[in-house]
Specification:
The complex is a heterodimer of chains A (about 110) and B (about 130). Chain A is an all-alpha fold and about 110 residues long. Chain A contains four helices and no strands. The longest helix of chain A has 29 residues. The N and C termini of chain A lie far apart (about 55 Å). The chains are: A mainly alpha (about 110), B mainly alpha (about 130). At the A-B interface, helix 1, helix 2, helix 3 and helix 4 of A face helix 2, helix 3 and helix 5 of B.
Chain lengths: ~110, ~130
């Protein structure tokens, strides 16, 4: 029996997640830009101190998680649009997930060791 | 039924990507995908630079300085600055259209033009800073 490896249940959830993470990242971008204008990158110590601040660390954590999820949905959409053979597409999905999980872990480790 | 199939077969098709002309919003939309893909592919570089910039090891800072001094790296960063700005501006446009703001043809055209103009202007402004012009 052949089955379609697609589903109707996760589309709206990912669509919404794409939007929510986009809004979070846009706000974060503006906050960081304002901080840079205010001198957060004026010296290496200032930069480290800024990123180590509890509130900044928390929102950076949220940004990293958002980026990971947002990139997952976006890159998965690209594979779904252009890669027709199911086996190749699933393999690319898995590889994308693995590298993104790795990136998220790496980035969190960078801000947490400060 | 067979008449329907016959009709389907004879439907004109025109999928020559080198000849198809899209409205500006179409190009801006494709660039949203291209910029997103580019940002994804360059994520390791960006995380690595973040890692080095926040390191307490002096050698890492020397390495960070030497990497970011390279013209080749600056060109890659310039491309990523554009990708981020385009993705950001086009993303705002998508969010607005999601809540039915700017769906009229003329408004949609203007907003696509605004995305291109704003993202390219900001890329120029940040690019000049990147290359140390100011």
């Amino acid at each position: 029996m052949s089955r379609l490896v697609v589903g109707a249940h996760y589309g709206i959830k990912d669509w919404l997640a794409q939007r929510i993470t986009a809004v979070l990242m846009a706000i974060y971008t503006l906050v960081i830009f304002a901080a840079v204008l205010a001198g957060a990158t004026s010296s290496h110590d200032a930069w480290r101190g800024f990123m180590a601040h509890g509130a900044v660390r928390s929102v950076t954590f949220l940004f990293i998680i958002s980026l990971g999820y947002h990139a997952w949905v976006g890159v998965r959409d690209i594979w779904m649009d252009y890669i027709k053979p199911t086996s190749v597409r699933i393999l690319l999905h898995v590889l994308t997930l693995l590298v993104l999980i790795g990136y998220v872990g790496w980035a969190i480790q960078i801000i947490w060791r400060l | 039924m067979s008449a329907l199939n016959e009709q389907k077969k004879q439907r004109p098709r025109f999928l020559d990507l080198t000849v198809i002309r899209l409205p500006l919003a179409g190009y801006a939309s494709i660039l949203h995908r291209v910029s997103g893909a580019g940002l994804f592919l360059m994520l390791p570089l960006l995380i690595w630079l973040l890692d080095l910039s926040l390191s307490s090891t002096p050698e890492h800072l020397v390495l960070f300085e030497s990497i970011t001094r390279s013209v080749l790296v600056k060109l890659v960063l310039l491309g990523l600055i554009w990708a981020f700005l385009h993705h950001f501006c086009m993303g705002l446009r998508i969010l607005l259209i999601d809540v039915h703001v700017g769906v009229e043809k003329q408004q949609a055209r203007s907003s696509a033009m605004a995305v291109m103009v704003v993202s390219l202007s900001l890329t120029l402004a940040f690019g000049l800073k990147l290359f140390g012009v100011y």
